[in-house]
Amino acid sequence: EVFFPLYAGMLAVLPPPWAGERYLLSIYPVALAYAGQAVVSVMTGLQPRARTLAGGTAVALIALIAAQPLAASARVGSFCREAFSRGERYACLGPAWQDYFAMADWARAALPEDAVMISRKPGLFYALSDRMGIDIPKTPDSDEYLRTAETAGARYVILDQLDALTAQYSIPVLQSYPGSFCLVRMEEVPGAAVLGIRWELPRANEPANPERQIPLS
User: Fold this and answer.
1) Which one of 95, 143, 173, 186 has the largest count of C-beta atoms within 10 Å of its C-beta?
2) CA distance 105 to 30
């Protein structure tokens, strides 16, 4: 009774990137228990025959509402299994996730084993690439961002379009010091790319090679 409203209130005030559906999993059982208690309280006052009729009607209504989404999910699942069997590992993901995983696959094959990178989902990226990394330094200060990256030994920055965090924290650093980065790989989704950090150069406010710079927006 104490945890439920506090946790639900926390989700209500969190920014969208941290308030996804997965965070509701911990309170789903409690919410279902409360709903069940409410239904039992309402049904208790009814006659046995009325309770049976109301229960059967509710089950039938839920089945009718769920039938179409379940059929659609089954069709999507069948398509995804067929695509995966053809070797299309990420066919059923959105373009942004496809690019993110493609960069991880590429990193496993192309980057040194000791490469360290900054990415939005470092644990997931590591699982696919076998390359260590750190989360995006969540600071509006470009110099602090780079200090954190240098302390961690990061040599690469993963630009993605998964959510707004890359645009909020990584892009301002690129705009402040474009000459300190070089383009290593470009993906199909605009703005998704792998950049190298040029620690050997002083932090530069101008691009070292403008022709190789990628759009930052």
Assistant:
1) 173
2) 40
Q: Which residues of 163-173 are buried (b: 16+ CB within 10 A; e: fewer)?
A: eebbeebbebb
128 sits in the region (left: phi over 0; alpha: psi -120 to 50; else beta) called alpha
Q: How far apart are the C-alpha atoms of 111 and 107, rounded to whole Å?
A: 5
Please, are residues 133 and 117 in contact by the beta-carbon 8 Å criterion? yes
Burial class (CB in 10 A: 0-12, 13-18, 19+), 100: buried
CB-based contacts of 55: which residues, under 8 Å, 6+ apart?
43
Q: Residue 197 burial by CB count (10 A; 0-12/13-18/19+): exposed, middle or buried?
A: buried
**For 35-67, how does the pLDDT look when each residue is reduced to its tens digit (9 = 90+)?**
888 877 777 777 777 777 877 887 888 888 888
Whether 195 shows a pLDDT value over 90: the answer reads yes
Q: What are the b/e assignments for 59-80, b being 16+ CB within 10 Å?
A: eeeeeeeeeeeeeeeeeeeeee
φ, ψ of residue 166 to 5 degrees: the values are: -65, -45
pLDDT tens per residue, range 82-106: 988 888 888 888 899 999 999 999 9
User: Which residue spans within the chain are E strands per DSSP?
Assistant: 117-119, 133-135, 156-159, 181-186, 193-197
The token pair at 191 is 């703005």
